[in-house]
Design brief:
Blueprint lengths: L2 E4 L5 H18 L3 E5 L5 H4 L6 E6 L10 H11 L3 E4 L4 H10 L3 E4 L9 H13 L13 H10 L7 E6 L11 H12 L4 E5 L6 H12 L3 E3 L5 H9 L3 E5 L2 H8 L3 E5 L15 E4 L21 H12 L1
Parallel strand pairs: 1-2, 1-4, 2-3, 4-5, 6-7, 6-9, 7-8, 9-10, 10-11
Length: about 325
């Protein structure tokens, strides 16, 4: 049996959130699946060691629009899939499935939008297989690589190893770097710590400011690492604190406790799927009322972040 799963959202966090349902499809059908996904979701890294996925089909720009329909159809037809599971309500994928002759088609109701993504995916998959499926993600890593990482980066067990999520997809979703510096000073006054700065090359100015603020000897940046290596660094760590980013969702998927700062994204959609994420929202808001355009980064209680962080560190 050949099975295709379509999950076309852009984000790393989105792919982590959908991972339990992709795994459930494979487990229930007792076969690894092919996954059609955008490169930006980093599915190749997230599922690199996961036996439930044996192929990633990159949904690049040449395939993602109307002009790419025939090209995508040719790729899918050649693989002769028996079943397709479509985690969206797009008419395009319904037509594609019929056009290439896939006999068993499972899809969200057409034109589904503005949903709570983990709930829709959970209900969709549970209705197909008729049993409860946990929304908790469990990303797979390589134990040999985990040991190599521990030695390479000197994960001393007498230290607390803390991921600081300084990156974000835009300025309204980013807690100021000065706040992270103040928070790190509070933490290191209580415990011996090493800080891992979860950001990319676009965040270099933030990373440099943090490191030059007295943390040169106790901080390390992710900026030059690939996601697959970052996953092993995260797995060796103790805690994530920071913005709602792909790094936070990877951390949750690897079993870390996460203190997530939500001030301009749907807090329930992106924290309610797992017990690993404790969401902090702007004063006067809750996880159910913090959403896009909340613009609440200046209303996050620094004292609340410190209190919850020190509670976890201790």
């Amino acid at each position: 049996m050949k099975v295709l799963v379509v999950q076309q959202r852009y984000g790393i966090g989105d792919m982590v959130i959908f991972s339990p349902y992709i795994q459930a499809i494979s487990n229930n059908l007792k076969t690894p699946v092919s996954l059609l996904a955008k490169k930006s979701s980093r599915a190749r890294d997230l599922f690199a060691y996961d036996k439930s996925v044996d192929e990633i089909i990159d949904l690049d720009k040449s395939l993602d629009k109307v002009s790419g329909f025939l090209k995508l159809s040719k790729i899918i037809r050649q693989k002769k899939f028996d079943k397709i599971f479509i985690f969206n309500g797009s008419l395009r994928y319904r037509v594609l499935s019929t056009y290439v002759g896939i006999k068993s088609v499972y899809q969200y109701p057409l034109f589904t939008s503005k949903d709570i993504i983990f709930q829709t995916a959970k209900i969709f998959t549970e209705n197909i297989f008729n049993h409860v499926i946990s929304s908790e993600p469990k990303l797979e890593i390589n134990n040999s690589e985990l040991d190599k990482c521990r030695k390479k980066y000197n994960f001393d067990s007498s230290f607390k190893h803390i991921i600081l999520g300084v990156s974000a997809s835009g300025p309204t979703k980013r807690w100021g770097i000065d706040n992270f510096i103040k928070l790190a000073n509070k933490i290191k006054n209580k415990k011996k710590c090493k800080f891992y700065l979860a950001g990319g090359l676009d965040d270099k100015h933030l990373i440099n400011k943090f490191i030059s603020s007295g943390f040169k000897n106790c901080s390390f940046s992710f900026e030059n690492l690939q996601i697959k290596e970052i996953m092993h660094v995260i797995k060796n760590s103790d805690l994530y604190i920071g913005n709602d980013t792909g790094f936070m969702h990877i951390s949750a998927g690897l079993g870390l406790k996460c203190i997530g700062l939500f001030f301009d994204s749907p807090a329930y959609s992106y924290s309610g799927y797992t017990k690993k994420i404790e969401a902090i929202t702007p004063l006067g808001k809750t996880i159910f009322t913090t959403t896009h355009n909340t613009n609440g980064k200046d209303r996050i209680s620094f004292e609340e972040v410190v209190e919850k962080t020190l509670s976890e560190v201790n």
